[in-house]
Amino acid sequence: MRIKIIVPLLTSKYNSAVQEDIAPYIAPDVSVTVVNLDFGSPSIESRYDEMCSTPDIVSKIVESEKEGYDGVFVSCVSDPAISVARELVDIPIVGGFEPAALSAGMISKRWGIITITQSCACLIRDLATLAGIHQQLACIRSINQPIDELHQAPGKLEEVLLAQIKKMVSEDRVTAIVLGCTGMMGMAKYLSREMETVGMPIQVIDPSAVALGYLQMMIRAGLTHSRLEYPKLDLRERDMSCVK
């Protein structure tokens, strides 16, 4: 099995950390390739960023199918370009939001998301409404730190996330939490352990871990997106295309 991971940034500086972070969740018979964008927004933290990056994300998904990959994970909790790409390829595609959110709904009836910026929170709220799971989503909190600042000060991200999660449990009364950015690598297990030590045992969900587990399951089960929901679009019938 071959999986392509698209990290929708204009830099490869996080790729080795991504490979290390996902390793425990990849089956022995699965090979993974991590790529980045050639053009678009430096990162996806708003609707405008998503619009700018969508053409290259879609191009890379189409390219992945041509190269024989079995599935694609777009490593972003705003699920950018997923719906668009499903009209063009047959292989399964997942982003960071939907698998994690649906998993949260399986283990909790009142869950929350902690993300990086308020603009990301707005994107996530739209996704929850579109997926029909917004009634279970008790809160979305932001730590007000863009992606480039997440790992600048060692230990700072853990401290900020832990403080917000404690508030989400005590004030918002959530019983499970989804990390709202795939850049929060390696945080979920640590945060779950720390919360248990203070008498607040709560599941903190890593979106990358769940998305990759779900994608591997889909491939093994022969599942992909419905053609009744995402009718196949033939670009050869179009006069122009923004997809390479």
TrEMBL record:
Domain of life: Bacteria
TM stretches of this protein: none
InterPro entries, per the entry: Asp/Glu/hydantoin_racemase, Hydantoin_racemase-like, Iso_Racemase_Enz_sf
Family recorded in the similarity comment: Belongs to the HyuE racemase family.
Entry protein name: Hydrogenase expression protein HupH
Molecular functions (GO terms): amino-acid racemase activity
Pfam families in UniProt: Asp_Glu_race
Annotated organism of origin: Photorhabdus thracensis
